[in-house]
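Quick review question:
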């Protein structure tokens, strides 16, 4: 009996060891699966992954079958009747160029048939930005405001560099952008005082946008605004600073300059801790909403409206048309309006911007390209 009892204890011990080992293995397996799942979620794809295009069956929305447009986008013929030329202005600089230009292919990224290092990637985005403008608005100028010490070289027709002294570090770039806009507007005022008939309207934008329709209609259909901002239905950040238009008259340039000076003052005094990102948009919203009796509920509708903010006549344009963001941003639930004019590849969408240009170059069809963008899904394409 004692021998049998000892054997039972031994067998029970073996069973216990087996169960503990098995449970530990299952737990480790589950943990490894969770880690792998997180890696998959955070993975940045090196190719486009198309999904269903939002807005199917909705009127006045682009309808797509894959990357083929089933209806056509509306072209505005916007330059007709516009008094003055139009120039696009963007702030752009290059970081760590001496390091990135080393022949280290380990960190290179492939998009289509091209290989990019960090400097190449930034320059590719800038060049595609220019490409889209020159297709949609071939008579427009592009002015690149940049750090005088930046090793930046752009040899393109109707493109010029305009160095402005300032602090262009990553942490201060958004702050510097407003300062550069103010400085540039000030120089335009001086030029106009010498030649008041030389009217040029200005559109200040991020360099990661694609202009897909002529924007001249904006100045023709709304002849009285000093500057234009784009808005979305977002309580904390209703205004996006990636698109700001300024009419080219002396009064409008002066009023826009004074408005941006007020935004800069609020930026520095209230939102300096957000100087790397979002501070400019928070400051814009604060200046606009601080106007007594300003009706912020208008931001919930995709209808343009005007208001006087501190003496500056501001035209508020819906992001859905003038600052539309691919899936993961404004507009993804309701598709893409047929008359969209600007696509903003902000955040993790830079690769998609280059892929879109490559697709357009092979098809020369804007509507099909917009279907490619619309169906790109919520995948992380940034590099």
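Suggested answer, residue by residue:
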């Amino acid at each position: 009996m004692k021998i049998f009892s000892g054997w039972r204890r031994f067998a029970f011990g073996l069973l216990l060891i087996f169960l503990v080992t098995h449970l530990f293995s299952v737990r480790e397996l589950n943990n490894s699966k969770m880690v792998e799942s997180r890696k998959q979620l955070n993975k940045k794809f090196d190719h486009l992954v198309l999904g269903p295009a939002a807005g199917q069956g909705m009127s006045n929305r682009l309808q797509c079958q894959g990357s083929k447009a089933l209806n056509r986008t509306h072209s505005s013929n916007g330059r007709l009747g516009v008094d003055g030329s139009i120039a696009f202005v963007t702030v752009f600089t290059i970081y760590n160029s001496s390091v990135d230009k080393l022949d280290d292919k380990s960190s290179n990224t492939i998009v289509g048939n091209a290989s990019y290092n960090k400097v190449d990637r930034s320059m590719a985005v800038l060049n595609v930005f220019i490409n889209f403008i020159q297709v949609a608005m071939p008579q427009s100028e592009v002015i690149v405001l940049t750090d005088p010490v930046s090793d930046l070289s752009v040899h393109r027709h109707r493109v010029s560099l305009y160095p402005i002294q300032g602090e262009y570090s990553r942490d201060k770039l958004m702050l510097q952008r407003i300062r550069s806009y103010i400085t540039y507007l000030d120089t335009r005022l001086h030029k106009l005082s010498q030649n008041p008939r030389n009217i040029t309207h200005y559109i200040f934008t991020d360099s990661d946008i694609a202009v897909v329709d002529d924007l001249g209609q904006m100045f023709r259909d709304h002849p009285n605004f000093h500057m234009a901002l784009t808005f979305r239905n977002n309580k904390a950040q209703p205004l996006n600073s990636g698109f700001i238009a300024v009419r080219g008259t002396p009064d409008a340039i002066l009023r826009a300059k004074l408005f941006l000076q007020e935004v800069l003052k609020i930026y520095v005094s209230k939102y300096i801790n957000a100087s790397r990102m979002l501070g400019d948009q928070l400051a814009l919203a604060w200046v606009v909403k601080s106007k007594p009796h300003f009706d912020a509920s208008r931001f919930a509708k995709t209808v343009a409206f005007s208001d006087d903010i501190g003496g500056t006549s501001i035209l508020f344009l819906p992001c859905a048309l003038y600052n539309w963001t691919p899936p993961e941003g404004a507009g993804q639930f309701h598709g893409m309006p047929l008359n969209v004019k600007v696509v903003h590849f902000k955040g993790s969408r830079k690769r998609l911007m280059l892929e879109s240009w490559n697709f357009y170059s092979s098809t020369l069809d804007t509507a099909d390209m917009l279907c490619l963008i619309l169906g790109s899904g919520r995948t992380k394409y940034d590099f």
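Why it works: The domain at 64-374 is CATH 3.90.550.10 (Spore Coat Polysaccharide Biosynthesis Protein SpsA; Chain A). The chain has ten helices and 14 strands.
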